[in-house]
Amino acid sequence: MAMLTDEMLLDSYQMAVQLKLDREFIALLLAEIHKRSLAVESNALLN
Question: 10-residue block means of pLDDT along the chain (47 residues)?
Fold first, then answer.
């Protein structure tokens, strides 16, 4: 995950949610987003 830029990480998260990929994968992306103290658009949040 460290190799991803912040923008790539956020884009990956949003795409993973849109494609309804595995919840564990999405949770890993979200954990990294929180670790970096990044903001996630509310419409991309996992339900």
Answer: 94 95 95 95 60
The predicted model scores a pTM of: 0.83
- What architecture (CATH level 2) is domain 6-40? Orthogonal Bundle (1.10)
CA atoms within 13 A on the CB side of 1: 17
* In contact, 41 and 14? CB cutoff 8 Å: yes
Residue whose tokens read 């494609």: 19
Residues in contact with 3: Cβ distance below 8 Å, sequence separation at least 6, in sequence order: none
Rounded to an integer, what distance in angstroms lies between the CA atom of residue 22 and that of residue 7? 21
